[in-house]
Amino acid sequence: MPRLSLRPSRKRNNSHGDYGRFRPVRRLPERSEMVGIRKRRTKFNEIKTKTMEIKAADVMKLRKMTGAGMMDCKKALAEAEGDFARAQDIIREKGKLVVAKRADRTATEGVVVTKIVGQKGYILCLACETDFVAQNAEYSASANAMLDVAVKTDAADRDALLAAKNAEGRTVEEMVTEKSGQTGEKIELAYYARIEAPYCHAYVHFNKKLGTLIGFNKVVPEEVAHTVAMQATAMAPVSISEADCPADVIEHERKIAVEAMKQDPKNANKPEAILEKIAEGKMRKFFEENTLLNQPVVGEKETIAEFIHKADKDATVIAYKRFALEA
Question: What residues does 63 pair with on adjacent strands?
Fold first, then answer.
């Protein structure tokens, strides 16, 4: 704040009011201070001029090219002095910084998208940090754009999809990074899989957080396929049947069954052979509850296999993929 000095005044009533004998006098800035003020004003005017040179049409054009926010596009164009190629690079670099900064965050929100093309089915989950981002229409569009790359390249697995390129020559991994820059959140390709069968059907739950692909050995009525896909989505079977149940899952469940029997005092003096038979009985129960074809239809007594055979005695499920995005 400028210092005030006092000096006598000949007039008691002046333009500044009645101060009596003395009135305050404002100190003028020193020469060095005036130079600093002029520099700051010049710099402000230069920034203002540059900002005004960025046209709204150019911002919209860059937004369409990158999908980034309006302010991010405006800042990138200003920094690149109107060079669109450089502005795109700036936005991509921002995405890499976001990825690095938020690497330790967990992405528990997102969308699951599916697509059936002929005798092939594809499923993908693009995860993010908040449901605010996940529920955005542009976010779902980005997930579907990545799924389109999967369909076009027929990517075999997640690694192959990340390396696959879209029509503009960008890899899916780069698309994910750019999405991080646009949203300011950790974005990741949480899951990708595909199936191949004579007839495929997909189902995605209304919250878009879980979905299923089902493949049949032959064409079945759509309502049958839909019911089976919904069953798999709701009940989360570990496999189609006992035959394709992973060996490590079987071994783990068997150990649990045997250990539980040993802990029961009733089984203390029973021979090992008897215990093995009891364990087999428990495993049969496990397969009935946790394999798709052996599970009872929700709300019914018949199994999924029996339900399918009512429509076609020769039909069965030969392919199955399910993913759930869990917190």
Answer: none
- Given a contact cutoff of 8 angstroms between Cβ atoms, the answer to whether 136 and 117 are in contact is no
Strand partners, 188: 127
Tokens of residue 3, six digits:
């210092």
Q: Hey, how many other C-beta atoms are within 10 angstroms of the C-beta on 149?
A: 20
The amino acid occupying position 40 is R
Q: What single string gives the DSSP state of each residue in 74-129? A: HHHHHHTTT-HHHHHHHHHHHHHHHHHHTTTS---EEEEEEEEETTEEEEEEEEES
| Both tokens assigned to 204 | 């995605």
% of residues, the chain, pLDDT over 70: 77
Query: Which tokens in the block code for residue 163?
Result: 């390396």
First to last CA, the chain: 55
Residues of the chain with pLDDT under 70: 1-53, 64-69, 91-92, 94-103, 268, 327
pTM: 0.70
Nearest to 57 by CA among 73, 45, 72, 80: 73
Amino acid letter for position 7 = R
Helix%, strand%, coil% for the chain, nearest 5: 50, 20, 30
Q: Are 302 and 269 in contact (CB under 8 A)?
A: no
- Per the CB < 8 A criterion, the answer to whether 115 and 198 are in contact is no
Question: Which residue, 226, 203, 227, is CA-closest to 324?
Answer: 203
